Amino acid sequence: MAHEIEQFSDGTAAFVSARESAWHKLGTVTADALTAEDAMRLAALDGWSVRLVGLHATELTAEGTTLLDVPNHRASVRTHPKTGLPETLGVVGPDYTPVQNEEHAEFLNHLVDESGAHFETAGSLKGGRQVFLTMKLPQTLTIGRDDAVDLYIAAFNSHDGSTAFRIVVTPVRVVCANTLRAALRNAKSSYTVRHTSGARGRIAQARQALGLTFKYAEEFEKAAQRMLDAEMSTPVLRTVVDELWPLDGSDSPRKKTNRDVRWASIRNLFERADTQAGIRGTAWAGYNAITEYANHAAPARGADDLAKAAARAERVITGSADDVMERAFRLMAV
């Protein structure tokens, strides 16, 4: 799990979840909703003081040791939340500006304002190089009569220069805690800010940009309703799956076997899974079968069940399955 949710030598993990989470219930689970302060403290995200430190290279020759400056790169360093010692997180370019975890949480607080949203999860991944916070919004979308979809805002940041500061709107289907990412033509569901000297100002602008969040929710609900009203057969779903994961004649036997296993899993979700009860046989069910597979059923690496669960949680949090889910939505939307 060293490359997923961060774990410390005292047996704790840098993850907290409020009540019943849509994110696999790893780490600390609290009885009540989380405030920004709770999230930072319980997930060991506070007090990192991420800063930039000059770099030097050492050249060893027969004549001795020479210390060389590295003028165009710096080390990103944090104060370790358990040991209090400095720890290098990555090497970044000259324009990189850190965004502190406290600023990360404060931004989400300002974004949702007095809406009644609460922090749902927070944590760090990959030894502190990446962090995330999610907030659950108070409104619930209803598809059909009783298929409930909650709405979350998630913010993802890196301290090693690997990714920008990214905010996404994420619908989650309640019955199976299934994250649904849809690419809607006229509604913005994400915002990205590069780590430069103007980052803080652009983070402030993100609130206005994500004012389209509620437009996204409205359009998602309408699109999902149309999918619920459209029938879908198993053969039609198979054509969508084949387009999402295409094969050709030169593919290896192993890849062909993986295709068959994947299809069997998606077909079972579509035709038999309890999570499809009430929506079975519709395009909405087909889309959910694919997203449930991408988030939960697709193979995950790990030495044991907990490690695999952590890998799946990371997949959901970091959005590595977003591309498949958004392409599936475009193929199946009516």
| Radius of gyration, CA atoms, in whole angstroms | 22 Å
Multimeric organization: single chain
Largest sheet: 8 strands, mixed
Distance between the termini: 41 Å
Number of helices: 9
Instruction: Give the helix level as a range of percent.
Output: 25-40%
Strand content: 25-35%
Model description:
This protein has helices spanning 36-42, 101-112, 199-209, 213-229, 234-244, 253-271, 283-297, 305-318, 322-332; strands at residues 15-18, 28-30, 51-61, 64-79, 86-92, 118-125, 130-143, 147-158, 165-173, 178-179, 190-193. By secondary structure, it is an alpha+beta fold. Strands 1, 2, 6, 7, 8, 9, 10 and 11 form an 8-stranded mixed sheet that branches. Strands 3-4-5 form a 3-stranded antiparallel sheet, with no helix packed on it. Strand 7 (130-143) and strand 8 form a beta hairpin. Helix 1 (36-42) packs antiparallel against helix 2, helix 2 (101-112) runs parallel beside helix 3 (199-209) and helix 5 packs across helix 6 (253-271).
Question: Any key phrases for this structure?
Answer:
single chain, 334 residues, alpha+beta, eight-stranded mixed sheet, 9 helices, 35% helix, 27% strand
What's the gist of this structure?
With 334 residues, the chain is α+β, with helices and mostly antiparallel strands. The chain contains 9 helices and 11 strands. Helix 2 runs parallel beside helix 3 and helix 5 packs across helix 6.
Q: Strands, helices and their partners?
A:
Blueprint lengths: L14 E4 L9 E3 L5 H7 L8 E11 L2 E16 L6 E7 L8 H12 L5 E8 L4 E14 L3 E12 L6 E9 L4 E2 L10 E4 L5 H11 L3 H17 L4 H11 L8 H19 L11 H15 L7 H14 L3 H11 L2
Parallel strand pairs: 1-2
Antiparallel strand pairs: 1-6, 3-4, 4-5, 6-7, 7-8, 8-9, 9-10, 9-11
Helix pairs in contact: 1-2, 2-3, 5-6, 6-7, 7-9
